[in-house]
Amino acid sequence: RPYLVERVEYEAAAVEKHWRDARGVSEQLGQLADRLAQGPWTGAALEERLRKLAADRSIPAARLIHPLRVALTGQAVSPGIFEVLVVLGRERSLRRVGEAVRYLRDRSAAGAGVRDR
User: Fold this and answer.
1) What is the DSSP string of the chain?
2) End-to-end CA distance of the chain
3) Which residues of the chain have pLDDT under 70?
4) Is the pTM of this model over 0.85?
């Protein structure tokens, strides 16, 4: 379904698990989108840029991968995230990350559902 619809719906359990810190996750996803947008759109190149951002932030790559998965598919489980990025393509992937960042910022500002910790 995530590959066929224009906009994904976020599963409540995935949001609660991977987007709990709405403010922090929105910041990370914004930075990740900036990094992903630069350079070739191949699985290996995307993985390298994601892992570099994780290293720059001194966090495990999983702290970027799981929130990104929710942004792209709306779910906590999907095929490999770099394959998902490639299949969705640059434009759709970056649009979905941007929509997720706006969603998180709105939820954070409203104090509804997603908690800031």
Assistant:
1) -TTTSSSPPPPHHHHHHHSSSHHHHHHHHHHHHHHHHSS--SHHHHHHHHHHHHHHHTS-THHHHHHHHHHHHSSS--S-HHHHHHHH-HHHHHHHHHHHHHHHHHHHHHT-SSPP-
2) 32
3) 2-3, 112-117
4) yes
